[in-house]
Specification:
- It contains 13 helices and five strands.
- Strands 1-2-3 form a three-stranded mixed β-sheet. A two-stranded parallel ribbon has the order 4-5.
- It is about 60% helix and about 5% strand.
- With about 290 residues, it is mainly alpha-helical.
- The radius of gyration is 24 Å and the shape is globular.
- Helix 5 packs antiparallel against helix 7.
């Protein structure tokens, strides 16, 4: 009697697990139906997959920051066009090796004896890369499950290899490794702009806005209150520390006008410390 194939609803799986299963399943099928004409094509395909996965799971910025950190201290004199071109070529060459390693890992480690049917009925898989990957899986199994008149597509069931947690963990590690080098084009554009503005690049943590900066810099994550050590420091010292530690991505004017950045930081830090002090006083009275 044939073994019954388990069926999972796509919305019962964490996004990370779902995407890793899709990636593993597709990579494991590459030798039979998606042989690449060249190492370059393999590199491009695996690079795109890694970057899209990292973006979808909120990990891309961490990889970009890791890449940028290697260039801290570079100046107009040491970040010339020929240097940037050489770094890009060096990283792209390494991506050839990483892409080959990723495909080989999927070929060798994904257990083809265990499969699972995932029901995508009503799933909202809006990322073009992964919805396209899913489309290829549906087509492969001859399922009439795509309604191309609508976006995102209304899907039904795809049969994929049921990877173990260990395989998914190792696969994710390889995707992160690719991401560290795959973000080099974004990193070079990022560096060129900042070195052009200031003559030098100094690494800073990237935050979306001032709320994220204040939360990371001043707030103790264990209790939601102002960090006790920071609360005892002079405001001007805190402003200098924060300005040197963070870059606010959604406020490009702060790059052009550092003094305006320090001014708004001083205002926000003072207001946050005042709220924290008031909270502490109220708590003491109670």
């Amino acid at each position: 009697m044939p073994e019954k194939v388990p069926v999972l609803l796509s919305n019962t799986l964490p996004k990370r697990d779902l995407l890793l299963k899709l990636i593993a399943g597709r990579l494991a099928k590459l030798p039979s139906d998606l042989n690449f004409a060249s190492d370059h094509e393999r590199m491009v395909a695996t690079r795109i997959t890694a970057v899209e996965y990292l973006k979808e799971t909120g990990q891309y910025r961490k990889q970009l920051q890791g890449c940028l950190k290697n260039f801290s201290g570079r100046t107009t004199e040491t970040f010339r066009p020929e240097f940037a071109a050489s770094v890009r070529r060096l990283y792209h060459d390494h991506l050839l090796t990483l892409g080959r390693s990723l495909v080989e890992f999927a070929e060798q480690k994904v257990n083809r004896r265990k499969v699972v049917d995932i029901d995508f009925t009503g799933a909202d898989l809006t990322n073009p890369h992964f919805s396209g990957l899913l489309e290829s899986l549906f087509n492969e199994y001859g399922e009439g499950v795509l309604n191309l008149d609508y976006a995102p597509w209304t899907c039904r069931i795809a049969r994929i290899y049921n990877c173990s947690k260990d395989t998914m963990k190792r696969l994710e590690g390889k995707l992160r490794s690719i991401g560290q080098f795959a973000c080099i084009d974004d990193a070079i554009s990022f560096l060129e702009l900042r070195i052009g503005l200031h003559g030098k690049y100094t690494f800073k943590l990237l935050v979306d806005d001032l709320d994220e900066l204040i939360s990371d810099f001043l707030i103790d994550s264990t209790n939601g209150h102002v960090n006790n050590v920071k609360a005892r420091k002079p405001i001007d010292e805190l402003v200098k520390e924060a300005a040197g530690k963070y870059e606010v991505l959604n406020a490009p004017t702060y790059l052009v006008n550092p003094e305006a950045y320090k001014s708004i930081l001083k205002h926000r830090i003072r207001a946050t410390l005042k709220k924290g002090t008031l909270f502490s006083r109220k708590a003491t009275k109670i």
